[in-house]
């Protein structure tokens, strides 16, 4: 059908598609229904119906659309199916949905009407049910061909071993199977063509296919025309076996690209419609729609070229590889290289072929196919189809499978289908062998030499890498590596897991995971499916590392239980194919998001509810934070994540608690004061939390009035406890987020605190007390809140001691976050004010997940025994997170309970179930796969020093609270001493007089020294208790990347930035100065240095710094005239200024909370802050790096 | 008189045994995820003080009635109970803290402790029973 035709029905269809139970439930309903149709899908019926599916899909063009179309094919008449499609569709590609929906919707309608979908599907044709329209027929024929090809491929795989001869027939795909994904994966990041590529393929098809297509164009749209044109291409190409194979390969490549795109989610470049609302939707459909324009012109050169590029890679790989060998371990680079090398001839030839092939895929698998198809075993295919409509055996299934695929042909996905198919075939052996062969084998040759190269720490002074320290890559075969979870989300301290606890103990390194599960992702496959496939015994979500025993069963990679593949899972929405569960997005991505059904809800998804609890005592008014907060809120009121149900409320407190009635209809906000703080109550429970949209004017009035309302207050007391109790009461019916702004020690009512800090003890080297909470009030409150799905976020803006150790509990256990602005003052401390402003902007607008729980599962034999982060551990492995925000990191410690000798891979899976701000229940699943090793040296080779240090920091925080700071410091030092001693004892050939570390751990002592000098753990240097506690809180809740900057800042020299070694980011040239050692020896008076401490940038300017630099970058004529408190770099039109600013903004872009820049001159009081971060230098209280090394060496020798 | 002391001790010991069993059951419930940490801890914390008192009373009683051996046997356990109760950090919600019970193997050590106490109380039970019968016969 044509897109235009499809459009009108869309809304109705969509509406109809959604059953009362919501999308999720509809899926489930569809599942059983789909079973029957599928069975019928067998050769005969499928042939009949396919055309329809084909036609319907064509308009969509994208793989996803194919998916939908297929559904109708299967269950032509079933209403449920339609629902399925609809639900699936929006969920998957939410943003593009509107564009793509149209065809789908129409098709769905058709489906409802009758089995004659196909008739409807090609809209231009008025064909009867018995005989498809001309176009459809042609497509069918093509389909047939493709089916045969795939079939043959299949055949080779299953019925016969794959032989080299197959390759000539188009089997190459099989061989490609492994190389292909790699290639595509490798290429994808570099090349932004994917959408274009798809389009390109189309475009090429059109161009190549000439007139008939054009004619079709006129009639309907490009898609339909394609379908019609298919016959031509078919005729041309079919005869040539080799060409066809090529085409399939290339098309497969394209498909894969497409697939990857689809899976990975939105393509920012192609379409700028990235949902800010927090729904990361993949937009393949959209891309498709974009493709259309390319295709229409027909000869669209750009599209064509893109297609060419996409095509190229597969072809070479194909040629290079023998067809069989599932475990081919060709490196992606190599494949890529080859792809690039591939001659233009192949590519030029292939695009057409691709189209052709794609077209083929879409047709009916009828008798024609037999005659025309070059594939070796068409007859077999036919017979199977004819005899068994249902997929009984695997081969039997295939026909259906193939049938299913046809719709895709026009689209790039079609090739994907083929490739996928072969992929599948190979996958079985591949997956099965993974554990045995692939797991740890590659270790020996690749990683080991480098990561185990002994480094003499006392001699090698320059151990810092030039740029940032990369995360070690687990030693897996390239396929698994590609599939593995990004180290940004999921890192393990040991990327080679020791086989036994004894081995782990020998290594003396902690085993644990560092998680950043809710990270902002640019690409995230979102899956809507009625059944979320999980292991029946351990409830693990299906993931890329499970093994498919056969087409119908999969083996859980965590508990090893064999599970059935649900019927619905057999159908692949991306390729619109049936019978290749391994190609499902769940199995192709280690990070996926599911739209959960009502099974995952205890109650209807809650609305976004925000409550602000504001300190308005004299102290607070004096500091002036209210102005900044209200301003930020006013600016971001419309950007608060939420939907039409979003609610908001305000409570202020000093010695009393004030509520604000914002009920719609009032002329102005009404303040209600409750002075009975011992028994707090809600004056008007219904009108304090109001709908943001209905009462927006009142809210704005209040925000405008609030900063001036308390200007003359003389109230110095703070009744924080009662205010929190009131907030809890207000929030408990719904749950949500409470943001508390506090500026002093709470002094009234429940939860009052007393100053515990002795200023004379600040620089004590012995005992640091009061790191733990003084009262359990805040902890209890937090647990109450957590139970009611309410998180408390604390903003502490105080100038004196406020007992953060106690106050922080309210956020720690309710999964909130903590912000601390020491000596905050709006005018006296502009840097802090600016920071608050920026933090608030991020805080208010960032994504948020409500009523979340997170579960971390790991392979049988491993167990998690300690959790770090802000949450409440509700049961052994279930973390209760009232709110989850994208800036929260978590850590867990693990132990090896049972020996892992019988496995070569272990997996970890985190599943985060949350309610999005739009009221959708979603599950984000990350899966990490790591090899198991049996030798100590391998364990060291895989050590991830950053993760180790971050985990140790978390452990040290616990230790200092539960025991003492001195204990924690000793433990940190011992961690280095023990692990290095253990390493040196394993490497017998080393000289024991030297301090040797494996290359993977060469930064370990440096980082530990940095930790010891960090605010949280340092002694001997004056550190305010709140600062220390805040640093500890951050260690527990920051994700690894940010934590590392806190521990070990990056120092760059920026006065001589050049254009050498630059990188290009969004059309900006970003210079990449090398990392400098954190030592004063690197500072010169002639230079200017930038220190990146994560939350703050220090720009240190030497006394004799080049005046040109000062003039160009800082905007002042000379050194003396640079002001003391400078936090902004002016925009000067000079290359050096441009470079500096682009470098700084590049650094800023990499983190959620925009750091404040502080310019430091020699005599600046902030200079000490800067120099404290030069951790390699000696201070009165602490070792220099070299001394520290000597100390370690001494202890090792002892 | 002596028989009265032992009858009381016996009853008290029974109560302590039941308490230990209750602790074990509740903790294992938590282990199996039948209840959540919050309710588990609030249940258990309620009975920490009664346990301390119950055991202290027997210990003191033995001291008063000059049963040195039994007193010395009870003393370490009673001391441990009191020490544990006193040493709870100010910010914690009792001996059993829901926020920490799943960390660092605390659950396991609590379980172990409850088991050991159960064994100890059973031992004491038979000792008291024997002493009581002896005392009754003597009377």
TrEMBL record, chain A:
Pfam families: Gelsolin (PF00626), Sec23_BS (PF08033), Sec23_helical (PF04815), Sec23_trunk (PF04811), zf-Sec23_Sec24 (PF04810). One of its GO terms (molecular function) is zinc ion binding. PANTHER family: PROTEIN TRANSPORT PROTEIN SEC24B (PTHR13803:SF42), SEC24-RELATED PROTEIN (PTHR13803). Residues 1-11 have a biased composition (Pro residues). Residues 605-844 form the Sec23/Sec24 trunk domain. Residues 275-293 have a biased composition (Polar residues). One of its GO terms (biological process) is intracellular protein transport. Belongs to the SEC23/SEC24 family. SEC24 subfamily. Residues 532-568 form the Zinc finger Sec23/Sec24-type domain. The keyword Oxidoreductase does not apply. Residues 1071-1144 form the Gelsolin-like domain. SUPFAM superfamilies: beta-sandwich domain of Sec23/24, C-terminal, gelsolin-like domain of Sec23/24, Helical domain of Sec23/24, vWA-like. InterPro entries: ADF-H/Gelsolin-like_dom_sf (IPR029006), Beta-sandwich_Sec23_24 (IPR012990), Gelsolin-like_dom (IPR007123), Gelsolin-like_dom_sf (IPR036180), Sec23/24_helical_dom (IPR006900), Sec23/24_helical_dom_sf (IPR036175), Sec23/24_trunk_dom (IPR006896), SEC23_SEC24_subfamily (IPR050550). Residues 944-1044 form the Sec23/Sec24 helical domain. It is a peripheral membrane protein. Keywords: Cytoplasm, Cytoplasmic vesicle, Endoplasmic reticulum, ER-Golgi transport, Membrane, Metal-binding, Protein transport, Transport, Zinc. Residues 849-933 form the Sec23/Sec24 beta-sandwich domain. GO terms for cellular component: COPII vesicle coat; cytosol; endoplasmic reticulum exit site; endoplasmic reticulum membrane. The keyword Membrane applies. Residues 1-56, 275-418 are annotated as: Disordered. It comes from the Eukaryota. This is SEC24 homolog B, COPII coat complex component.
TrEMBL record, chain B:
The keyword Transmembrane applies. Its main location: membrane. It is a multi-pass membrane protein. Keywords: Membrane, Transmembrane, Transmembrane helix. InterPro entries: Cornichon (IPR003377). One of its GO terms (cellular component) is membrane. It holds the Pfam family Cornichon. One of its GO terms (biological process) is vesicle-mediated transport. It is found in: Membrane. SMART domains: Cornichon. The chain crosses the membrane at residues 5-25, 52-75, 118-137. The keyword Transmembrane helix applies. Belongs to the cornichon family. This is Protein cornichon homolog 4.
């Amino acid at each position: 059908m044509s897109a235009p035709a499809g459009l009108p029905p869309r809304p109705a269809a969509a509406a109809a598609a959604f059953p009362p139970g919501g999308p999720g439930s509809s899926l489930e309903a569809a599942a059983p229904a789909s079973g029957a149709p599928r069975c019928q899908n067998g050769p005969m019926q499928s042939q009949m119906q396919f055309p329809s599916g084909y036609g319907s899909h064509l308009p969509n063009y994208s793989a996803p659309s194919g998916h939908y179309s297929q559904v109708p094919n299967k269950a032509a008449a079933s209403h449920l199916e339609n629902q399925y499609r609809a639900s699936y569709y929006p969920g998957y590609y939410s943003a593009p949905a509107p564009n793509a929906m149209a065809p789908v919707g129409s098709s769905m309608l058709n489906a409802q009407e009758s089995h004659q979908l196909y008739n409807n599907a090609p809209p231009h044709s008025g064909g009867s049910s018995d005989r498809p329209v001309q176009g459809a027929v042609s497509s069918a024929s093509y389909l047939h061909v493709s089916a045969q090809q795939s079939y043959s491929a299949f055949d080779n795989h299953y019925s016969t071993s794959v032989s080299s001869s197959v390759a000539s027939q188009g089997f190459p795909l099989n061989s490609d199977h492994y190389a292909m994904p790699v290639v595509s994966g490798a290429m994808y990041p570099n090349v932004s063509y994917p959408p274009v590529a798809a389009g390109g393929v189309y475009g090429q098809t059109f161009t190549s296919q000439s007139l008939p297509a054009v004619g079709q164009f006129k009639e309907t749209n490009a898609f339909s025309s394609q379908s019609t044109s298919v016959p031509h291409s078919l005729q041309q190409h079919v005869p040539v076996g080799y060409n066809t194979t090529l085409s399939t390969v290339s098309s497969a490549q394209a498909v894969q690209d497409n697939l990857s795109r689809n899976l990975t989610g939105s393509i920012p470049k192609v379409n700028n419609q990235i949902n800010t609302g927090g729904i990361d939707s993949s937009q393949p459909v959209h891309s498709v729609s974009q493709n259309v324009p390319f295709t229409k012109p027909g000869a669209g050169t750009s599209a064509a070229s893109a297609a060419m590029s996409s095509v190229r890679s597969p072809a070479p790989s194909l040629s290079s590889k023998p067809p069989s060998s599932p475990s081919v371990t060709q490196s992606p680079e190599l494949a890529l290289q080859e792809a690039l090398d591939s001659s233009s001839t192949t590519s030029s030839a292939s695009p057409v072929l691709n189209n052709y092939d794609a077209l083929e895929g879409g047709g009916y698998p009828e008798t024609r196919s037999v005659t025309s198809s070059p594939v070796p075993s068409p007859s077999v295919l036919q017979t199977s189809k004819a005899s068994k409509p249902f997929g009984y055996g695997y081969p039997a299934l295939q026909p259906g499978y193939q049938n299913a695929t046809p719709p895709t042909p026009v689209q790039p996905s079609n090739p994907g289908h083929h490739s996928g198919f072969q992929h599948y075939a190979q996958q079985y052996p591949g997956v099965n062998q993974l554990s045995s062969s692939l797991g740890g084998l590659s270790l020996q040759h690749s990683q080991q030499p480098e990561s185990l190269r002994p480094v003499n720490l006392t001699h090698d002074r320059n151990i810092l890498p030039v740029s940032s320290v990369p995360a070690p890559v687990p030693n897996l075969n390239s396929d698994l590596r590609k599939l593995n979870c990004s180290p940004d989300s999921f890192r393990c301290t040991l990327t080679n897991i020791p086989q036994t606890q004894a081995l782990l103990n020998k290594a003396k390194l902690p085993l644990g995971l560092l998680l950043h599960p809710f990270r902002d992702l640019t690409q995230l496959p979102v899956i809507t499916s009625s059944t979320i496939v999980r292991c029946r015994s351990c409830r693990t979500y299906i993931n890329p590392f499970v093994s498919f025993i056969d087409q119908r069963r999969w083996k859980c990679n965590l508990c090893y239980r064999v599970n059935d593949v649900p019927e619905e899972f057999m159908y692949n929405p991306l390729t619109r194919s049936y019978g290749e569960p391994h190609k499902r997005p769940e199995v192709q991505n280690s990070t996926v998001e599911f739209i959960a059904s009502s099974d995952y809800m205890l109650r209807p998804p809650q609305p976004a509810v925000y409550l602000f609890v504001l300190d308005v005592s004299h102290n607070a008014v004096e500091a002036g934070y209210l102005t900044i907060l209200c301003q930020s809120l006013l600016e971001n009121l419309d950007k608060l994540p939420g939907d039409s149900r979003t609610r908001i409320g305000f409570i202020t407190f000093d010695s009393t608690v004030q509520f604000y009635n914002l009920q719609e209809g009032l002329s102005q906000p009404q303040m209600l004061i409750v002075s009975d703080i011992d028994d707090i109550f809600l004056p008007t429970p219904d009108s304090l939390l109001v709908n943001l949209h209905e009462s927006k004017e009142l809210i704005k009035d209040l925000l405008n009035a609030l900063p001036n309302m308390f200007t003359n207050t003389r109230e110095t007391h703070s009744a924080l406890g009662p205010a929190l109790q009131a907030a809890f009461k207000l929030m408990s019916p719904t749950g949500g987020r409470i943001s508390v702004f506090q500026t002093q020690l709470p002094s009234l009512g429940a939860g009052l605190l007393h100053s515990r800090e002795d200023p004379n003890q600040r620089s004590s080297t012995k005992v640091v007390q009061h790191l733990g909470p003084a009262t359990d009030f805040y902890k209890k409150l937090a647990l109450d809140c957590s139970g009611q799905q309410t998180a408390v976020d604390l903003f502490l803006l105080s100038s004196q001691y406020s007992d953060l150790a106690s106050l922080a509990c309210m956020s720690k256990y309710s999964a909130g976050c903590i912000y601390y602005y020491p000596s905050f003052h709006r005018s006296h401390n502009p840097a802090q004010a600016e920071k608050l402003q920026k933090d608030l902007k991020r805080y208010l607008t960032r994504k948020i997940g409500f009523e979340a729980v997170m579960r971390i599962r790991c392979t049988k034999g491993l167990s998690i025994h300690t959790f770090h982060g802000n949450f409440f551990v509700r049961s052994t492995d279930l973390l209760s997170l009232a709110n989850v925000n994208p800036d929260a990191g978590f850590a867990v410690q693990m132990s090896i309970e049972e020996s892992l000798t019988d496995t070569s891979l272990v997996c970890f899976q985190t599943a985060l179930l949350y309610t999005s701000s739009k009221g959708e229940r979603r599950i984000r699943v990350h899966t990490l796969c790591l090899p198991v090793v049996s030798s100590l040296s391998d364990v060291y080779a895989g050590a991830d020093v950053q993760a180790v240090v971050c985990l140790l920091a978390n452990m040290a925080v616990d230790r200092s609270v539960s025991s003492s700071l001195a204990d924690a410091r000793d433990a940190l030092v011992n961690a280095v001493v023990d692990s290095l001693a253990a390493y040196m004892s394993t490497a017998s050939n080393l000289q024991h007089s030297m301090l040797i570390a494996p290359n993977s751990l060469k930064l370990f002592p440096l980082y530990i020294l940095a930790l010891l000098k960090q605010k949280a753990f340092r002694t001997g240097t004056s550190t305010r208790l709140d600062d220390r506690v805040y640093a500890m809180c951050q260690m527990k809740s920051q994700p690894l990347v940010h934590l590392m900057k806190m521990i070990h800042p990056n120092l760059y020299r920026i006065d001589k930035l050049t254009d050498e070694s630059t990188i290009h980011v969004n059309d900006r040239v970003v210079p990449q100065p090398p990392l400098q050692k954190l030592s004063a020896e690197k500072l010169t008076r002639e230079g200017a240095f930038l220190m990146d401490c994560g939350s703050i940038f220090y720009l240190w300017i030497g006394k004799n710094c080049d005046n040109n630099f000062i003039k160009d970058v800082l905007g002042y004529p000379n050194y003396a005239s640079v002001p003391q408190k400078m936090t902004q770099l002016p925009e000067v039109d000079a290359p050096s200024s441009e470079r500096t600013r682009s470098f700084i903004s590049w650094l800023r872009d990499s983190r959620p909370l925009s750091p404040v820049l502080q310019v430091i001159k020699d005599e600046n009081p902030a200079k000490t802050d800067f120099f404290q971060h030069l951790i390699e230098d000696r201070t009165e209280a602490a070792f220099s790096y070299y001394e520290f090394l000597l100390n370690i060496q001494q202890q090792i020798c002892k | 008189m002596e028989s009265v002391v032992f009858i009381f001790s016996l009853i008290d010991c029974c109560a302590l045994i039941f308490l230990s069993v209750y602790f074990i059951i509740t903790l294992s419930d938590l282990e199996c995820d039948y209840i959540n940490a919050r309710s588990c801890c609030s249940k258990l914390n309620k009975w920490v003080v009664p346990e301390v008192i119950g055991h202290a009373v027997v210990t003191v009683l033995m001291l008063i009635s000059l049963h040195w051996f039994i007193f010395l046997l009870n003393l370490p356990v009673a001391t441990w109970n009191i020490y544990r109760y006193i040493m709870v950090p100010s910010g914690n919600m009792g001996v059993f803290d829901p926020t920490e019970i799943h960390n660092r193997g605390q659950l396991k050590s609590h379980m172990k402790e409850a088991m050991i106490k159960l064994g100890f109380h059973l031992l004491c039970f038979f000792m008291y029973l024997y002493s009581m019968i002896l005392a009754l016969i003597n009377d």
